[in-house]
Amino acid sequence: MGTRVAMSVAGAGSLSRGTAVVLRVLLYPEILGTAVLWVAMWYFWFSFDSSHFLKKAAWFLLLIIMGPLSLPFYYFFVYRRWASRIEPQEPAASPATR
Fold first, then answer.
1. For the whole model, what pTM was predicted?
2. Directed axis angle between helix 53-65 and helix 17-47, to 10°?
């Protein structure tokens, strides 16, 4: 009973059936993509981020408190800077081109 009351207060009951289906179809991939990106940023934080301890601690708090909202900030301030330092490697020459 409490869920129905909360949904009606939020106005979720006022959507037509077609609109609700379209919103679900559009939002589920977005939710899945955000979850995958969040896990990937945590993996980068644990494995590759070699920042100072205090910077890592600050990003840890931001990633925990703000959740997926902190992902763009982490990408632009930490990951992108790290990725730009990596030199692009030349592909290995194939035996046919020798």
1. 0.59
2. 160
